[in-house]
Amino acid sequence: MNVFLLDDEPLAVKRLRRLLEETRRVCVVGESTDPAQALARLVEIAEPVDALFLDIEMPGLNGFQFLEKLEIEPLVIFTTAYDRYALRAFEVNSIAYLLKPVEPEALHRALDKLDRIAGGSEPRADLRSLVAELGKALGRTGPDHLSRVPSRLGDRIEFVETHLVTHFYSKDKLTYAATGARDLVVDISIAELEQRLDPRRFLRIHRATIVNADHIKELYTWFNGRLVVRLKDGKTELQVARERTAELRRSLGL
Length: 254
Hints:
Elements: E1 2-6, H1 10-23, E2 27-32, H2 35-44, E3 51-55, H3 63-69, E4 75-80, H4 88-92, E5 96-99, H5 104-119, H6 127-139, E6 148-153, E7 156-161, E8 167-171, E9 174-178, E10 183-186, H7 190-196, E11 202-206, E12 209-212, E13 216-221, E14 227-231, E15 237-239, H8 242-251
Parallel strand pairs: 1-2, 1-3, 3-4, 4-5
Antiparallel strand pairs: 6-7, 8-9, 8-12, 9-10, 11-12, 13-14, 14-15
């Protein structure tokens, strides 16, 4: 079975490709982190694409909007970090989904479902009409922001409640959630976190830093007029990028 991967997060694409290749059950014939680019590539690709691994939340086009524009109709496995998308509707209508971070066992179950649908032992959904219904239903629920983020610790995954996180930061190509007690590596980039966290609480103050406004104690001006955020723990200080200063002040009502 030939599959194509679409996720706006490069690390997620890389990880999913590796997991799929390890199964030896499918052939990855293409991948993309850009929905608009993927629309063209899926039509032009020489190999027939049997299945599409598709992220739901992407900038520009979300997964539902992407499928509305897609000219081919492959089988689809949705991938998402949001529990609210893991709806029974996906299962009863023969749509497979994976919650991020994707685990090998869950991936095999999703592939088993694809095999059953492709083999005719399980019905194939009318994807376009179903996607339209799901998109409307999910749209009526309003914005849904991350309430927890996954952190991989060896063979297990720990979920960190976002209200406990004082700030997120990136270092050496990894993203960390700082809780005051410890810093945990999370599987979501700063750019993706900015899109998925509640913007009323979590503020991007630097290309490598997002701060939880609930944990801000004070702001002060540093060398060369730079603004610095001091957290309530009394020791953590975070520099604010010049281009983010005005936006931070507005967000804090200053």
